[in-house]
Design a protein that fits this description.
This protein is α+β, with helices and mostly antiparallel strands. It has a single domain, classed as OB fold (Dihydrolipoamide Acetyltransferase, E2P) (Beta Barrel). Helix content is 36%, strand content 22%. It is built from five helices and eight strands. Strands 1, 2, 3, 5, 6 and 7 form a six-stranded mixed beta sheet that branches.
Length: 168
């Protein structure tokens, strides 16, 4: 009789400890929103929550200018302006080969990935099949917004730029 009670007590505390561990490792607060820690560049951010650890998010379907490309700092500044102080919702749970979460970031229902493209702060990712994003990019291009206002010789798709300037 006594061993049954001890066994139940051990199982209860084990369950309780595992539950506490699972809750403390969560990346989102109870509402499923995140907070900006910092912006790496115009298409990558580091986020966190009230509990848990920091993690990197790569904005899905966009490619922003690289660090030494024209318009890189403006792209980064716009993304920071759109996210700073806001509660961020992530849509998408896949990761890339670098372990970054690939997601659409929403603020109050607004798609930030789309805003980056429609303002001319980022290209649509070269391999994206998202027709809506492509039409937003075409509109920004026609209106000469953001990087589309730069002279053509200063505009180079970031994936092409990375090939021409490999990391050391």
């Amino acid at each position: 009789m006594r061993s049954v009670t001890i066994n139940r007590l051990i199982r209860f505390w084990l369950f309780f400890a595992l539950l506490c561990l699972a809750l403390s490792c969560s990346q989102a607060d109870p509402a499923g929103t995140y907070k900006l820690v910092y912006v790496q560049d115009g298409d990558s951010v580091v986020l966190c929550c009230e509990r848990g650890k920091k993690f990197t998010v790569r904005l899905l379907d966009i490619d922003a200018p690289e660090r030494y490309q024209p318009y890189a700092e403006k792209s980064k500044a716009l993304l920071k302006n759109l996210l700073e102080g806001e509660r961020l919702k992530l849509l998408g749970d896949k990761s890339d080969r670098y372990g970054r979460r690939l997601a659409i970031i929403e603020v109050d229902g607004d798609n930030i990935n789309e805003k980056m493209v429609s303002s001319g702060a980022a290209w649509v990712w070269k391999y994206s099949n998202n027709r809506h994003m492509r039409s937003l990019q075409q509109e920004a291009k026609e209106r000469k917004l953001g990087l589309w206002a730069l002279p053509e010789e200063q505009r180079q798709d970031p994936s092409d730029w990375r090939k021409a300037h490999p990391r050391k």
